[in-house]
Design a protein that fits this description.
About 35% of the residues are buried. A seven-stranded parallel sheet has the order 3-2-1-6-4-7-5, sandwiched between helices. The protein is α/β, with parallel strands linked by helices. The chain has one domain (about 15-175): SPOUT methyltransferase, trefoil knot domain (Alpha/beta knot). It has helices at about 15-20, 35-45, 65-70, 75, 85-95, 135-140, 160-175; strands spanning about 25-30, 50-55, 80-85, 100-105, 110, 125-130, 145. It is built from seven helices and seven strands, in the order αβαβααβαβββαβα. Helix 2 (about 35-45) packs parallel to helix 7.
């Protein structure tokens, strides 16, 4: 087995990415502190053709050298917008008919693997602050809450890892 070189990977350029059909998934980052986490989310969003990233509250916006360091240019390909208030944004997205989902550990949360995707729906996945998680008002406003099952002692994943797990799950369910 031989590792592939970058030029063998048949990657889209930025223009091709922008023209490509997107996965019916958007990401909301609710008050994310780490610039490296933000950059990592951009890379994951690029990898799975996410429609848009919403950066909310204290979440930093591109251009920033620490976001760029981990995004590796994905801030140029993935559409993004800033919203000062996550709750207001979620209410607006729900009015547009999008299914809003908080990724959180909460009473009544569904386990990620048990969530059935409806191909015609557009989904908004809300990920929260590294310490406090998704704001409780936002959790209460979302259509549902999904939890990533965990079996160790921490019951906590880094936000960028959580985004990777959930977006992969949605992408694979939508594309199989």
């Amino acid at each position: 087995m031989r590792k592939l070189k970058n030029e063998e990977l048949d990657r889209l350029d930025v223009t091709e990415f922008k023209d490509a059909t997107k996965t019916k998934v958007s990401i909301v980052l609710d008050n994310i502190r780490s610039l490296n986490n933000i950059g990592s989310v951009f890379r994951t969003a690029d990898a799975f053709l996410v429609e848009k990233i919403y950066l909310c509250g204290i979440t930093a916006k591109p251009p920033h050298k620490d976001i760029h360091k981990t995004a590796l240019g994905a801030t140029d390909s993935v559409e993004w917008a800033y919203a000062s208030d996550t709750l207001t944004l979620i209410e607006e997205l729900k009015k547009e008919g999008k299914v809003t989902i908080a990724i959180e550990q909460a009473e009544g949360a569904l386990l990620l693997q048990d969530y059935a995707i409806v191909a015609d729906n557009s989904y908004v996945l809300v990920f929260g602050n590294e310490v406090k998680g998704v704001d409780q008002q936002v959790v209460a406003t979302c259509d549902t809450v999904l939890e990533i099952p965990q079996f160790g002692t921490k019951h906590s994943l880094n936000i960028s890892v959580s985004v990777g797990v959930v977006v992969w799950d949605f992408w694979s369910k939508l594309n199989t």
